[in-house]
Design brief:
Strand content: 15-25%
Shape: globular
Radius of gyration: 16 Å
Order of helices and strands: EEHEEHH
Number of domains: 1
Oligomer: single chain
Largest sheet: 4 strands, antiparallel
Number of helices: 3
Helix content: 25-40%
C-alpha cells in the first residue's frame, strides 16, 4: 500500500476541535479555527466565554503521533471544574455538560 503524506506535516501537538450545533436550518458544523486557537487551554477559555453556540462533541488529535479521540468527556470534566470555581456555567455549555459529564469529583476552591 502506498503511503500518503501527512495533511499536517511537522505538527507534534494535540489539536482540539468543536462540533457546534447552530440549530435549524444550519445544523452542525466544525467551525474554522485559527491554528493558535486549537490548544486545550485556549479551547477551554473560548468555551467558558461562550464563543460556541451549542457544542456537541469535541475531538482531539495529534497528526505527528498518528492518533485521534473523542475528548468530550475530558473537556466536560475540565469545564465542570472551572464552573465550580465560577459557580455558573455559560448557558451555551449546559447541554454539553449534561451530555458528557461523568460526575467526576470537583475540587472546590476555599477562597
Amino acid at each position: 500500500m502506498r503511503s500518503s503524506p501527512s495533511i499536517a506535516p511537522g505538527v507534534e501537538r494535540d489539536i482540539y476541535m468543536v462540533l457546534d450545533d447552530y440549530g435549524q436550518p444550519l445544523g452542525r458544523a466544525w467551525p474554522e479555527m485559527d491554528e493558535t486557537h486549537t490548544e486545550r487551554e485556549t479551547l477551554l477559555r473560548h468555551l467558558m466565554e461562550g464563543q460556541y453556540h451549542n457544542p456537541v462533541r469535541i475531538v482531539s488529535f495529534n497528526p505527528g503521533a498518528g492518533w485521534a479521540q473523542d475528548a468530550s468527556q475530558e473537556i466536560a470534566d475540565a469545564l465542570r471544574q472551572r464552573c465550580a470555581r465560577r459557580e455558573e456555567a455559560p448557558p451555551s455549555l449546559e447541554d454539553f455538560l449534561d451530555r458528557h459529564s461523568r460526575g467526576a469529583a470537583i475540587q472546590l476552591s476555599l477562597l
